[in-house]
């Protein structure tokens, strides 16, 4: 069977699709991954076969300001209660949906042209790549949506989330002979059930499998080695040979509580190119002043050598401070690590709220941080106290370990292979 995967972005959009694609290949199926040209190298690094379908103009990809930093207080379960939203909030969601429709319009011609040539029997697309549903509709084959760790199945292609398709999306579907009411036949959902919001969509839970483009035979990170009892050096900072680490004094740790043997280690992971806001930096400095070892991933490394892929670092850490992206939430859930979320976007805020509800973390909207220098210091001090609370109160670690057990119990990609191939009929 030929299966066509598609996404409009690499990173957190591509990563959740890789395990299923590999499992399909291992089962004897043919797989291609159709992406904008700027994503082709990322696909190739996974070992999958990319198909370039043109470039996405930056003007199309860039999110409106209202989307990147939404204002006001949103209900923590807003995806399932759209009637509770204000007209201004619905305007933000409409801007999100219109942006994804523009991306789909930019992708559709190349994607549909390749699909008509290659004739896949199934299309798998990431949750925000509406062009995948367009291509499936144009060919009359099943479509599978891949979620990336959001607490909800967000139907931003619908007016007010539950209404008819957005006008631009309906026009795009008709242009390629597809029914505007067409929806994915199945959603693959890596979100642990206790974090997920209810949905009428047909969902299949699939365990999150982290992927960083490295070989399974690669030497484990120092943090993995330490957990396995192999130490990178008696007094070396992992990843930074020769740098001393904080040693346990057997008396008090961050916030005055008792310390475990060895350093208390927390991880900070940031996706924005500009790095963490000043308040987050201030919180990290306050933590380091109390003897906490801070491991930086992504743009949080701020010019330092990166500690390594997040899922390889987390097993040696006792907390994660991040923005609330789905991949980071799931990686920490799999590691059983409590999370402190400083959430800039709506989906990040939604994930943070669900973590807090499950008792496995704390969160606040990034909009609540004071951007002034004195305000950032004060906000940083409050964030540091939240971080110390995660480290010291056993309930957070217990809830995080419960979330880990739940995540590990979810079916793996091999089960998803059987489910998605059944969509194509008994001939498969």
UniProtKB/TrEMBL annotation:
Organism of provenance: Streptomyces violaceusniger
Name of protein: Glycosyl transferase
InterPro entries, sorted: EryCIII-like_C, EryCIII-like_N, Glycosyltransferase_28
Keyword Ligase in annotation: no
SUPFAM superfamilies assigned to the protein according to its UniProt record, in alphabetical order: UDP-Glycosyltransferase/glycogen phosphorylase
Phylogenetic lineage: Bacteria, Bacillati, Actinomycetota, Actinomycetes, Kitasatosporales
Family: Belongs to the glycosyltransferase 28 family.
Listed GO MF terms: glycosyltransferase activity
Alphabetically ordered keywords of this record: Glycosyltransferase, Transferase
Start and end residues of each stretch annotated as Disordered: 207-263
Domain Erythromycin biosynthesis protein CIII-like N-terminal intervals: 23-215
Domain Erythromycin biosynthesis protein CIII-like C-terminal: 309-420
């Amino acid at each position: 069977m030929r299966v066509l995967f598609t996404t409009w972005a690499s990173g957190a959009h591509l990563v959740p699709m890789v395990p299923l694609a590999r499992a399909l290949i291992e089962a004897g199926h043919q797989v291609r991954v159709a992406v904008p040209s700027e994503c082709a190298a990322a696909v190739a690094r996974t070992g999958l076969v990319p198909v370039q379908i043109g470039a996405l103009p930056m003007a199309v990809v860039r999110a409106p300001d209202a989307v990147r930093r939404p204002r006001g207080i949103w209900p923590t379960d807003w995806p399932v209660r759209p009637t509770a939203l204000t007209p201004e909030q619905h305007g933000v969601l409409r801007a999100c949906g219109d942006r994804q429709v523009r991306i789909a319009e930019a992708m559709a011609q190349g994607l549909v042209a390749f699909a008509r040539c290659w004739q896949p029997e199934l299309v798998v697309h990431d949750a925000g790549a509406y062009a995948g549903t367009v291509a499936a509709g144009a060919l009359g084959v099943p479509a599978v949506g891949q979620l990336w760790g959001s607490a909800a199945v967000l139907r931003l292609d619908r007016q007010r989330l539950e209404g008819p398709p957005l006008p631009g999306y309906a026009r795009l579907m008709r242009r390629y002979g597809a029914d505007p009411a067409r929806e994915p036949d199945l959603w693959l959902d890596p979100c642990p059930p206790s974090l997920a919001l209810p949905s009428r969509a047909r969902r299949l839970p699939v365990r999150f499998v982290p992927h960083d483009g490295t070989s399974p035979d690669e030497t484990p990170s120092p943090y993995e080695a330490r957990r396995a009892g192999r130490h990178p050096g008696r007094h070396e900072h992992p990843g930074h040979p020769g740098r001393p680490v904080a040693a346990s004094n057997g008396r008090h740790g961050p916030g005055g509580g008792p310390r475990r043997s060895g350093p208390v280690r927390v991880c900070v992971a940031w996706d924005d190119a500009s790095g963490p806001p000043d308040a987050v930096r201030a919180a990290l400095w306050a933590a380091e002043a109390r003897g906490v070892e801070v491991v930086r991933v992504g743009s949080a490394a701020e010019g330092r050598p990166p500690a390594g892929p997040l899922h390889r670092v987390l097993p040696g850490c006792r907390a994660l401070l991040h923005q609330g992206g789905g991949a980071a939430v799931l990686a920490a859930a799999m590691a059983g690590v409590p999370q402190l979320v400083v959430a800039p976007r709506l989906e990040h805020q939604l994930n943070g709220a669900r973590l807090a509800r499950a008792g496995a973390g704390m969160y606040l909207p990034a909009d609540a941080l004071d951007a002034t220098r004195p305000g950032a210091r004060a906000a940083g001090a409050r964030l540091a106290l939240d971080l110390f609370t995660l480290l010291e109160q056993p309930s957070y670690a217990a809830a995080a370990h419960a979330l880990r057990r739940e995540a590990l119990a979810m079916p793996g990609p091999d089960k998803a292979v059987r489910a998605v191939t059944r969509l194509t009929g008994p001939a498969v």
